[in-house]
Amino acid sequence: MDNENFSIIINERNNKVEAYNKKAKEDFEKYGGIDLLTKYVMSETLAPIEDYENAVNIIRSNYHKYISGKLLIIGAYSIINWSSSQNELLDILNLMYKYLPDEEKAIVHYLNATQTYVRNGLVENEESIIELKKTLKFDIPFVYNRCRIAEYSTRENARKYYNEALDNVQKILSEEDILKLPFEHFLEPQTFINEYILGTHLSYINYDVMKEKMN
Question: Which helix (H) or strand (E) holds 133?
Fold first, then answer.
């Protein structure tokens, strides 16, 4: 695909996202409900908006009324990566832990590990390593946990974890695949979780980076 056509597609999509975001905000404020809340929050995470701080604020203002484990996960992840504020959304997930499905339990451990890692200056410590290893207890596809564990493992064990990570990748998206997907696809919380937290659905670029690390 040439640059001109690429730019046209991106501009059209950006315009659609911005119009959708405005309508999603209006609809949620008018009608409420978990479905409209989810669409509004997720539209805040899409390019060209990518206002993660506002996405977190929306979740914070509404979680007491509309409980969603997936939105709490996205909010907690966003605070870790784009804010220095208190991560009460992760605190809530830890309180909800025993009631969560296995995938979300594994993610909670991963978020605990990541928060400790970030607050420790991007260095793994005993606490973050313990949390990372707990993610392995669950029989779910998970890529990024194994990549993290591989980074502080011996060479032999690192190769093992990278191989497991590659085996857990469920979908590799080319540039054309990504452009063909309607933006509504990215309004699903699970899509965000699969790409940014679990790593089970990757762009071809991120997949190639992972393979290079393994070597």
Answer: helix 126-134
CATH number of the domain enclosing 118 = 1.25.40
Residue 184 has what DSSP assignment? Answer: G
CA 169 to CA 141: how far, in whole Å? 8
Cα–Cα separations (whole angstroms), residue 201 to 29, 88, 147: 32, 28, 14
Residue 102: the pLDDT is 98
Cα 157 vs. chain centroid, distance in angstroms?
Answer: 26
Residue predicted with more confidence, 3 or 121: 121
Q: Give the domain extent around 197.
A: 3-214
Separation CA 88–CA 45 (nearest Å): 20
CB 210: neighbour CB atoms within 10 A?
20
Distance (Å, rounded) from C-alpha 209 to C-alpha 117? 21
Per-residue DSSP letter, 48: T
pTM: 0.94
Name the one residue in this structure whose structure tokens are 């966003």. 78
Query: What Rg do the C-alpha atoms of the chain give, in angstroms?
Result: 18
How far from 144 is each of 15, 100, 113, 154, CA to CA, in Å? 32, 20, 12, 17
Query: What span, in angstroms and rounded, lies between the C-alpha atoms of 173 and 123?
Result: 30
Cα–Cα dist 104/76, whole Å: 12
Q: How many domains does the chain have?
A: 1
Q: How confident is the model at residue 214 (pLDDT cuts 50, 70, 90)?
A: confident
